[in-house]
Amino acid sequence: MRRLWMVFLFLVIPLLWNAPPAVAQFTEAGAQKLRVAVDAPDFTVKELGGGKISLKELRGKIILLNFFATQCPNCRRESPSFAKLHEEFKNTDLILLKVVAKEKEKDVIKYKKEFNISSPILIDDNASITNAYGVSSSPQTFFINREGKIVGRILKEMDWTSKNAKNLIDYLLKEKK
Predict the structure, then answer these.
(1) Comparing C-alpha atoms, which of 139, 59, 72, 50 is closest to residue 99?
(2) What is the DSSP letter of 12?
(3) What secondary structure, in 3-state letters, does 63-131 show?
(4) Where in the chain are the domains?
């Protein structure tokens, strides 16, 4: 057992110590950084309450694209912290978008009110966005950089008010404009 700890101390810790800052920021927040950023699938979709949002028109901003379902227990636990994050960063270059697929609008309105969500909720009626991003469970969040590339993702519930989550967002916001 002692030998195992020695291996850990001498091999694994130096690897983490020398990790690039971006990888460290994502890892500390519980997110996965993609080794190679990929183009985010573009979309133009209806926003709850009217209007349309196009991902292409948001270039130059940092996007958190959060897929959820109104009856998903993990999504329901995550939503309050996501709403708080939106309030804290609303006057920055961070855009938080929530995406819901194949749900009744009245259920989404009720969800929005229940969790006091002020960020845009995108209505993915035919699940085309959900499918384009390969989402098979909720919640899932994609980090999209200013160039419109997916640089990371979270495949589970997240506490968006945690210090590590905020540090990651601060790091992304400081990247070149």
Answers:
(1) 139
(2) I
(3) EEEEEECCCCHHHHHHHHHHHHHHHHHCCCCEEEEEEEECCCHHHHHHHHHHCCCCCCEEEECCCHHHH
(4) 2-174
Half-sphere exposure of 146 (CA within 13 A, CB side): 12
Residue range 98-133, pLDDT digits in tens? 999 999 999 999 999 999 999 999 999 999 999 999
Fold classification of 2-174 (topology level): Glutaredoxin (3.40.30)
Q: What is the mean pLDDT of residues 74-98?
A: 95
**Would you say residue 172 has pLDDT above 50?**
yes
Residue appearing with tokens 């009720």: 110
CA dihedral 73, 75, 76, 77 (to 10 degrees): 90
* pLDDT, tens digit (0-9, with 9 covering 90-100), for 39-64: 999 999 999 989 999 999 999 999 99
Q: What's the pTM value of the predicted model, to 2 decimals?
A: 0.86
Task: State how far the Cα of 26 lies from the Cα of 32, in Å rounded to an integer.
Answer: 6
